[in-house]
């Protein structure tokens, strides 16, 4: 009998292969939402909603605020096949719209002990924001039930010492804490949800419109759905939506608990968890939604760029003259530590040093483009509106001629007629030294300072000036 096993397996595989058509979600194993405006109400927030994501891409399931999750599987395993287009192994579809991304982190599990249960190790798929300083692992939020019969703010505390509310709004009037009738496995008084968290930047600069900004790649409910057939995926490494759209995932993005990339040749279970804690005003809290998912088939005819540059979003308004950029190069979604990145800025008075520290000298619209040195077609831009306090902003460059020589090597002089206070700053804003009473004409030794950009704040009785000095 033993000898027939490979034959039987072969026939079974043939049958599986014959079953043409897309492989959609076959079973939902667990749905544990966080509180939220869609929870406890049809069509997005009931146990029945969780069943709606089976068999297609038209379902309606909300995971609620940070930490809410769903676990599902396809009928067959999901292969991490090297022939899969762009390396993409499956696609998850949410209800993201332009300016309304509500990212969820995806975790995958291989049924290592082969018992058919999701009781093995979850591995996070590290998306584009994984290496940002604002991303956290092992983030925990404790939600407290206010025990009201109508929508009421839900208090929460986290394990970072913060607290807040999931705010009740007028559109959704049912209680937002998962109700015992439907979610008997959730403690009716309080419960903790834990996982990795990313920052969700929002843009509130346009009156009446709050935008939740789209992430670069690797998150659910992040990109708009495209067109059928849904088995032909978007290329995650381009900023435009292609083919099926939605959110494509590569099992190769999996990282272990130490953050190291690991290799899984197939996975059996997928968990999607809301990865953000963000309040959108009248929009309510950000919550990841899922409409369905599809397995991606090998197709070597689909080719496209596999390199990408990711820049952490700038604040919509930048009001400081220095800002630390966070810029990463990726190849097939794996972060590359040693790639050289070049920068272009739309403002002459904006410079970026080798540590990616941005220095701006004047107010106005600023666009920064980061370019991969080895392939300059790979580039990403971010923009902001610089609004500097005027003492530093508008005058800084015209004041630089006050210092001579400039650039300077050993000594500088300052062209002034009166006694002033001088503060000497590094480009990152650190104060190096002060001269409370600088006497005009006296030369200042700077030979010991490292080469670079410095800011000299000159404070006279009736006016302040800041000048830029280049030390050679
Ligand atoms: Ca793959
Ligand atoms: Ca198992
Ligand atoms: Ca794309
Ligand atoms: Ca959504």
Give structural notes.
With 472 residues, the protein is mostly beta strands. It has helices spanning 5-18, 47-51, 390-393; strands at 25-32, 61-62, 69-74, 78-79, 90-93, 104-109, 122-125, 136-144, 154-158, 163-166, 190-197, 202-203, 211-212, 247-249, 254-255, 266-267, 269-274, 289-290, 292-295, 307-311, 317-318, 322-324, 327-331, 334-336, 341-345, 350-352, 357-360, 364-372, 379-386, 403-404, 411-414, 420-426, 431-438, 444-445, 452-459, 464-471. The chain is elongated. It starts with a helix and ends with a strand. It folds into three domains: 22-295; 307-388, Immunoglobulin-like, CATH 2.60.40; 392-471, Immunoglobulin-like. Bound molecules: calcium ion (4 copies). One calcium ion is lined by residues 94-96, 102, 221, 289.
Q: Using the CA coordinates, give the radius of gyration.
A: 27 Å
Number of helices: 3
Number of domains: 3
Low-confidence runs of at least 5 consecutive residues: 13-20
Number of strands: 36
Tell me about the largest β-sheet. Answer: 6 strands, antiparallel
Bound molecules: calcium ion
Terminal-residue CA separation: 82 Å
Average of the residue pLDDT scores: 91
Please bin the fraction of helical residues.
Answer: under 10%
Mind sketching the topology for me?
Layout: H1 5-18, E1 25-32, H2 47-51, E2 61-62, E3 69-74, E4 78-79, E5 90-93, E6 104-109, E7 122-125, E8 136-144, E9 154-158, E10 163-166, E11 190-197, E12 202-203, E13 211-212, E14 247-249, E15 254-255, E16 266-267, E17 269-274, E18 289-290, E19 292-295, E20 307-311, E21 317-318, E22 322-324, E23 327-331, E24 334-336, E25 341-345, E26 350-352, E27 357-360, E28 364-372, E29 379-386, H3 390-393, E30 403-404, E31 411-414, E32 420-426, E33 431-438, E34 444-445, E35 452-459, E36 464-471
Parallel strand pairs: 21-29
Antiparallel strand pairs: 1-3, 2-18, 3-17, 4-16, 5-14, 5-19, 6-7, 6-17, 7-15, 8-9, 8-11, 9-10, 12-13, 20-23, 22-27, 23-24, 25-28, 26-27, 28-29, 30-31, 31-34, 32-33, 32-35, 35-36
Bound molecules: calcium ion (4 copies).
One calcium ion binds next to loops.
């Amino acid at each position: 009998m033993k000898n027939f096993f490979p034959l039987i397996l072969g026939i079974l595989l043939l049958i599986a292969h014959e079953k043409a058509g897309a492989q959609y979600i076959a079973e939902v194993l667990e749905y544990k939402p966080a509180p939220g405006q869609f929870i406890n109400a049809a069509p997005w927030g009931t146990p029945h909603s969780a069943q709606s994501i089976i068999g297609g891409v038209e379902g309606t399931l909300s995971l609620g605020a940070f930490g809410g999750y769903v676990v599902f599987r396809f009928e067959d395993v999901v292969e991490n096949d090297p022939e899969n287009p762009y390396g993409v192994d499956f696609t998850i579809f949410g209800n993201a719209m332009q300016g309304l991304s509500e990212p969820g982190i995806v975790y995958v599990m291989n049924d290592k002990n082969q018992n058919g249960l999701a009781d093995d190790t979850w591995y996070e798929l590290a998306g584009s924001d994984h290496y940002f300083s604002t991303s956290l692992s092992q983030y925990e939020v404790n939600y407290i039930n206010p025990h009201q019969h109508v929508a009421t703010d839900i208090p929460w505390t986290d394990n970072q010492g913060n607290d807040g509310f999931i705010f009740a709004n007028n559109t959704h009037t049912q209680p937002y804490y998962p109700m015992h009738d439907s979610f008997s496995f959730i403690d009716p008084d309080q419960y903790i949800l834990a996982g990795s968290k990313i920052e969700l930047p929002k843009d509130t600069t346009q009156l009446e419109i709050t935008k939740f900004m789209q992430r670069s790649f690797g998150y659910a409910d992040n990109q708009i759905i495209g067109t059928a057939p849904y088995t032909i995926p978007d290329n995650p490494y381009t900023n435009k939506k292609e083919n099926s759209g939605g959110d494509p995932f590569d099992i190769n993005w999996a990282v272990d608990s130490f953050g190291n990339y690991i290799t899984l040749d197939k996975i059996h279970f997928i968990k999607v968890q809301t990865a953000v804690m963000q309040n959108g005003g009248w929009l309510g809290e950000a919550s990841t939604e899922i409409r369905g998912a599809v397995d991606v088939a090998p197709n070597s005819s689909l080719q496209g760029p596999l390199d990408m540059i990711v820049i952490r979003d700038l604040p919509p308004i930048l009001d400081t003259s220095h800002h630390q950029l966070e810029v990463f190069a990726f190849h097939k979604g794996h972060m590359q530590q040693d790639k050289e990145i070049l920068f272009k800025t739309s403002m002459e008075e904006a410079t970026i040093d080798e540590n990616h520290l941005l220095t701006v000298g004047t107010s106005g619209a600023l666009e920064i483009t980061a370019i991969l040195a080895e392939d300059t077609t790979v580039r990403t831009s971010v923009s902001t509106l610089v609004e500097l306090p005027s003492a530093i902003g508008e005058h800084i460059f015209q004041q630089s001629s006050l210092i001579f020589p400039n650039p300077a090597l050993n000594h500088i002089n300052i062209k002034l007629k009166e006694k002033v206070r001088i503060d000497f700053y590094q480009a990152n804003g650190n104060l190096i030294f002060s001269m409370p009473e600088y006497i005009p004409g006296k030369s200042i030794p700077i030979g010991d300072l490292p080469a670079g950009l410095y800011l000299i704040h000159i404070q006279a009785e009736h006016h302040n000036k800041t000048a830029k000095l280049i030390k050679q």
